[in-house]
Amino acid sequence: MQMAEAIIERRSGVALWRQIADRMRREISQGTLGSEGRMPPEMALAERFGVNRHTVRTAIAALVQEGVLRAEQGRGTFVEGRKRLAYPIRNRTRFSEGLAGQSRGLAADLLDHAVEAAPIDVARALKLAPGSPVIRLETRSHADGRPVSRARSWFDAHRFSGMAEAFEGTRSITASFRKLGLVDYLRQSTTVTARHADTGDLKDLKLSPGAIVLVTIAINVDTEGSPVQYSETRFAADRIELHIPGAGTEAGG
Amino acid sequence: MQMAEAIIERRSGVALWRQIADRMRREISQGTLGSEGRMPPEMALAERFGVNRHTVRTAIAALVQEGVLRAEQGRGTFVEGRKRLAYPIRNRTRFSEGLAGQSRGLAADLLDHAVEAAPIDVARALKLAPGSPVIRLETRSHADGRPVSRARSWFDAHRFSGMAEAFEGTRSITASFRKLGLVDYLRQSTTVTARHADTGDLKDLKLSPGAIVLVTIAINVDTEGSPVQYSETRFAADRIELHIPGAGTEAGG
DNA sequence: TGAATTTGTCTATTGTTCTAGACAACCAAA
DNA sequence: TTTGGTTGTCTAGAACAATAGACAAATTCA
Question: Which of A156, B24, B42, B227 is most deeply packed, by most CB within 10 A?
Answer without folding.
Answer: B24
